[in-house]
Amino acid sequence: MKLKFRAKETAAVISVTTLIFFTALFGITGARTIIAIPLFFFLPFYLILNNFELPAGEKIVFSFFIGLGIFSSFVYYIGILVNSVRMAIAITFAILIAAAFLIKKFRKK
Amino acid sequence: MNKKIEVIIITLLYLTTLYLWTLPIRNNQLPYGEADAASHYIIADYTSISDKPITTLPYYIDIRYAQDNFFKPHTLWYPPQYHMDLAIVQIFGGNQIIPFYIFLAILSSIIVLIVYFVIRELYGFTPAFLSAILLMFSGRDYWIYLWGQWPERISYSLTILILYCFYKYTYSCIDKSQSEEKPIYIYLTSLLLATSFLLHPMGFFHSIAALAVFTIFILIKERKLPFEIKHLSFAVIIAVLILAMFPYQSASVLIQFKEGGAERTYASISTLFTWFKTPEQNPGVPDFYFSFNAMHGLWTLPLLLLGIIFLVMRRKRQDIMLLAWLTSTYIILHRDVFGITSFLHRSLSVSAHIFAPLTAIGLLYLISFIKLKQPLKSYVKYALVAVFIILAVSLNGKAAYTTLNTAYTGFASKISMPQYNTAVWIRDNTDINSNIKLVGSVSYPQDIWENMPKIQNKYIWMKSVAQRNIEPEPEKKNRTITHFLIDYSDLIAVNHQQGIQKLQAYEQNLTNVNLIYNKENMRLYKRET
Fold it and tell me: pTM (2 decimals)?
């Protein structure tokens, strides 16, 4: 029997396996942690880079590492402005997601 | 092999890596690491607990790190990104310790995935997979992860990725006639370089050296300028703008860099004939850190040399990139010949990142030498790959497992539960400007990974968790003692009767104090004002 994998199914299998792995090792804290990492440091930058012609693997890898430097930069300064890191995380996330959609719209035009 | 199956295989490999690297925190869910580790923990921990980014250092951090920012004392000495990343995960994870150490394990071991990705793109699955296996057991990475020089791990890891982006850009310029230029890669190079600086400047300098050597190599090989001036200028502007966002920290690094060369001691030229000469004076790490056998395994050496020979002989474009990285690492490790000695031994840790792919390539080169017909040659290839994996797991893997599984299990190597609980109580119930004299905790451990002299893990970590100035002798530094913390927990745990009696006598002699905390053999007295 030949196994067939599609990209989305592969991503789903990997995500669920990773979530189960961290939940098994660290409980709900592990699950929350492993959701937070891609949510903040990967997703916004992946959506931004997805607007450019790059291979899928490169988009995934570059997004995460750019996210490590840029997401926290925004949180730091917005945190000073609004006097709360928690609020700054939410605002930064919203700004970056909005930026991704704006770039998409702009590039379509 | 189907690319999606490859992805599943490398995911399973990386989850195994994380299973291994999280052993210390799973065995004992209390913070660990030596003094540097605590200095990173306190910034993230203060940020997440106070819900405020640090601008001016709080008192308990300031008394130790006030002058570490050379440009603007009393402010953060590192750019805030690394610690803010950890604080974000602490906040979302809903816990101060576990999310911190999970993310730390990921950031410290992510080189496994980075090298896999780049080598997979340039050389294919097998060398990439074998490189990843070597790196998951890399002593030069997991020892430093255990000690606590955390931000530089991820910063160093970015070098190969930065080089890869630049490689993609330069060859898109050189091959202009065949395909269009891809300036996005030089902008990504710039973004990743800036990120590397913000995470830890050491990695940034390594990456700059690698880019410089790579550019020279391409110029020699291709006899063409491998970039467009307008692209390069724009990339530089992006990087400078990002670094300018954190002027105090960026300026501090520049001052440190400049002053680092003020008092120069020059190493002998003979060191050029070694990969790294073991320092005569211990720079604060054990001798085995300088041993190739202990860190990489002597069995990898012939393959590593074969890999280098193969690349030098073949000199394809991707080979030039790896050779440039190797050469730049060699130059960096010999900067003491030019009198630049600071953090030299720390740069040595990147050896593993370049040695692993070269070793894997060496194995494949060895296989290519074997003159056999198919399918016999394929069988030999699989057999040699299997032997490689068996050696990596049984030798390097066994050492890694033993070290990570027993790390910080020594009695005095990390704070105990009573000490942690007391520190949390102190954090929630005392003034942030308190000076707390700690008496009774066992300190000065001499275990294998704490064999740097006189590391005071107990009080440094109590101080970090409590977010207050806790130290054994604050009076010697002319600080007014506001509290006395009498810790019987360690002495009772080891049944040290003489020590307990001495501590009781000390406690009875305290005057003008009120007992405000008394749990788990920990007693906190507040001094009357």
Answer: 0.94
